[in-house]
Specification:
Number of domains: 1
CATH architecture: 3-Layer(aba) Sandwich
Number of strands: 14
CATH topology: Alkaline Phosphatase, subunit A
Largest sheet: 9 strands, mixed
Order of helices and strands: EHEHEEHEEHEHHEEHHHEHEEEEHH
Shape: globular
Strand content: 5-15%
Structural class: alpha/beta
CATH class: Alpha Beta
Length: about 400
């Protein structure tokens, strides 16, 4: 069904109340598509490949994540913050992971972790908000309206079946903003329900059947309200049933919630979550804090893959990990690091061809601000996920340019 223009004059107050209180944002004159909620299509998606995106917010220090211990320049730039060679978890003669990243070390040595070097973009921004917006939209130095994950959902499922796109967060990320899909956004599964006043409950608890509604705007609002209500029930039930012996460590980074939904048969193909609250913005006394953060993230991702194996879905899921920028190469006077440029990206999963991809940025040839010069446009990794993993070939339209995928999948 084609796009229909929304008109407040055609919608009843009940329609707006039902849909609006489920998190649907509408504005006068906005073009809102009318999704076709096809249960058969949703069930068909349930067994497809799944992409999970994990955002490390705050600008993770890539140099102290995968330590170039074999390069003397690293220790010259970081006489205090440089991680000693004896503490590094070595994966070859040049690189090793931070001491607490046992999970990543094992994944890499088992061939289940790909490392992509030098990821960034031209004319980089050092603002958390601006740079993250560029990564969210895959459109650096522009004002793209929709997120790259949202555009991907629109391409993969143009009929917009319910629950195709899930964002586990306190608020919706720009990355999942879609022209056609209404993402399922929740934080605590136990509290994922509609807020309402007591005397409004009878009306809001019973969403009218949209089958006999001719008005396309009203039908859209009713279908969206129905979908949101159904999703909240599914999420709460899935989380209530989830029990796992797998130890995620200190924090699971919402990844156990992803496993719970997959195991419950949710038709979601795209999940978006994050290590929140700018945790990786390590300007002051970085070493101990950063080491703990990396340990938690490494433990969580490793456990996530074990949990997927436990439920028999390890072959179907890949997780991509990124941060909005790296850190400046030299340490600062506060024993921390400042906002930088090029960074690492990671892709983990049983189906991944592990190893190292992309050219390694030089620690001797920095830019005027003492930052790494990026060697890999981050959209190459997005293109790899889109075409190499999910099998969607039109990456040029999705990413507004030609970006060669890495040979990361069979």
């Amino acid at each position: 069904m084609g796009n229909k223009r929304f008109s407040f004059s055609e919608a009843t107050r009940r329609d707006l109340l039902r849909a609006g209180m489920y998190g649907v944002c509408v504005s006068a004159g906005a073009s809102i598509p009318v999704p076709a909620f096809a249960q058969a299509a949703a069930r068909a998606q349930a067994d497809g490949k799944i992409l999970v995106i994990l955002e490390l917010s705050g600008g993770n220090d890539g140099l102290n994540t995968l330590v170039p211990y074999g390069d003397d320049a690293y220790y010259k730039h970081r006489p205090n913050l440089g991680i000693p060679k004896k503490e590094v978890r070595r994966i070859d003669d040049h690189f090793g992971f931070s001491a607490g990243m046992v999970g990543f070390e094992h994944l890499y040595k088992d061939g289940k972790l790909a490392i992509v070097h030098g990821c960034g973009y031209e004319n980089p921004s050092f603002s958390h908000f601006t740079s993250m917006a560029y990564w969210h939209t895959a459109a650096p130095n522009s004002g793209e309206e929709y997120g790259w994950v949202g555009r991907l959902a629109d391409t993969m499922a143009p009929a917009a079946p319910p629950n195709f796109l899930v964002n586990i967060a306190a608020r919706q990320s720009l990355a999942v903003r879609s022209r056609k899909h209404v993402p399922v956004v929740f934080d605590d599964p136990n509290k994922f329900t509609q807020e309402k006043f007591y005397d409004e409950r009878p009306m809001l608890d019973s969403v009218a059947d949209s089958g006999g509604v001719d008005n396309p705007t009203r039908r859209f609002l009713l279908e969206t309200a129905r979908s949101a209500k159904d999703a909240s029930v599914l999420v709460r039930q899935a989380w209530a049933k989830y029990k796992s012996p797998v130890d995620y460590g200190i924090t699971g980074l919402d990844l156990p919630k992803v496993v719970a939904l997959i195991d419950a048969g949710m038709p979601t193909r795209l999940y978006y979550t994050s290590y929140r609250n700018n945790a990786f913005d390590t300007h002051v006394f970085q070493n101990d804090t950063h080491k703990r953060l990396l340990t938690y993230a490494s433990d969580a991702v490793s456990a996530f893959l074990k949990d997927l194996d436990r439920i028999g879905r390890a072959d179907d899921v890949v997780v991509m990990i990124f941060s909005e920028f790296g850190r400046r190469v030299p340490e600062n006077v506060n024993l921390g690091t400042d906002h930088g440029t090029a960074n690492l990206m990671f892709v983990a999963g049983k189906s991944v061809k592990g190893g190292q991809y992309g050219a390694i940025p030089s620690l001797m040839k920095l830019d005027a601000g003492d930052n790494l010069i990026h060697t890999t446009d981050f959209r190459r990794v997005y293109a790899t996920m889109i075409s190499g993993w999910l099998g969607v070939q039109d990456t040029k339209t999705l990413l507004n340019g030609d970006f060669e995928p890495f040979p990361m999948f069979g």
